[in-house]
Design goal:
CATH topology of the largest domain: Rossmann fold
Number of domains: 2
Low-confidence stretches: none
Radius of gyration: 21 Å
Number of helices: 11
CATH class of the largest domain: Alpha Beta
Strand content: 15-25%
Largest sheet: 8 strands, mixed
CATH architecture of the largest domain: 3-Layer(aba) Sandwich
Mean pLDDT: 92
Structural class: alpha/beta
Order of helices and strands: HHEEHEHEHEHEHHHEHEH
Distance between the termini: 74 Å
Length: 323
């Protein structure tokens, strides 16, 4: 009986260690998303979406793409839908094909820049040049590790400057749009160089990465085992990246933001609970021009594809501040 108990305990320890190792590795080295058929369709005929694509590889190896509205060509169907929604709100829009500013779009964990082509189509239709990039550890980026903004904070500004020099456009005015992990990168970038960003939009992001790991552990294993799992996964993440999980805290950076900030979150998010987004919003400085947007019924994976007019909401925010 004693040997059986010891064997069972040993098996549990091994299973726990494997689970922690898997989770920590997933945070540090997310599985890379391959190009999808809808990516290829867009890349093969961008004019059908009302845009022109300018891919390039930055000096540091980051794969990037500038997406601009195509002059003389009507917006794509998604872009026209956003223009129609804004027109119904009596918002004055720049003529199709006009560029009034730049937006850097930052994808979420396990994403890639091409995931934002359909988002860029919508934002280009209302007057923005969009810069898409594979973040480290994602897409075709040569970097192996995801650091949730702690090591990527300089990337948005540096890539925008390089794109502006390469394609001969003004790098300002500019705004940041980030989803989930990309939201954390956007917050860090905005706080580090507040003078260069005219507005910020953060969708479905976290207050602390520890809270997300703890929530996920509790949801699958209960509070006690979930805390153990979160601790072990954090140790593995730190071993791989050199960054303590406890130091990845957007909540500590948000009070330093000085630009108009929109924070949106799905009410049914089971990956990053809406309370995380509310915490970020509550931590914004008093008196800051800010907006909270709750997307009814949206989970983490469908927050951008519900019936809620999230693109028109983001576009209106940016048109009010980045032009």
């Amino acid at each position: 009986m004693k040997k059986r108990l010891m064997l069972a305990a040993g098996i549990l320890v091994v299973v726990w260690a494997l689970a922690c190792g898997w989770a920590g590795n997933q945070m540090a080295r997310p599985p890379r998303r391959a190009l999808q058929d809808y990516h290829r369709e867009f890349l093969s005929q961008p004019a059908a979406h009302g845009v022109v694509l300018k891919p390039f590889t930055a000096a540091d190896g980051t794969p990037c793409m500038v997406v601009e509205p195509l002059a003389g060509v009507p917006p794509g169907p998604r872009g026209q839908a956003v223009r129609d929604q804004l027109s119904k709100q009596q918002m004055a829009l720049p003529p199709p094909g006009t560029i009034v500013g730049n937006l850097v779009l930052l994808h979420g964990r396990k994403g890639r820049k091409e995931d934002y082509l359909l988002i860029a189509e919508r934002l280009c239709a209302v007057g923005y040049r969009c810069l898409l990039a594979d973040l480290p550890g994602h897409g075709d980026h040569p970097g192996a590790l995801a650091c949730y903004g702690l090591r990527e904070a300089e990337l948005p500004g540096a890539l925008l400057d390089e794109a502006a020099a390469r394609f001969h456009f003004a790098a300002s005015p500019a705004g940041l749009v980030g989803l989930s992990m990309g939201g954390a990168v956007a917050i860090q970038a905005a706080a580090r160089h507040p003078g260069r960003w005219s507005a910020l939009a953060v969708i479905s992001s976290f207050d602390t990465l520890e809270n997300v790991a703890r929530h996920q552990g509790a949801a699958h294993l209960g509070s006690f085992l979930g805390d153990l799992w979160q601790w072990g996964a954090g140790w593995v993440y730190q071993w791989q990246t050199g960054i303590p999980l406890a130091s990845i805290r957007s909540i500590d950076v948000v009070p330093r933001l000085t630009m108009p900030t929109l924070i949106a979150h799905g009410s049914a998010d089971r990956v990053i609970p809406m309370e995380c987004g509310k915490s970020l919003f509550a931590a914004l400085p008093p008196g800051l021009d800010k907006k909270w947007v709750e997307i009814p019924g949206a989970n983490h994976d469908n927050v951008l594809i519900t019936d809620f007019p999230i693109y028109a909401t983001i576009a209106a925010w940016m048109l009010g501040h980045v032009r």
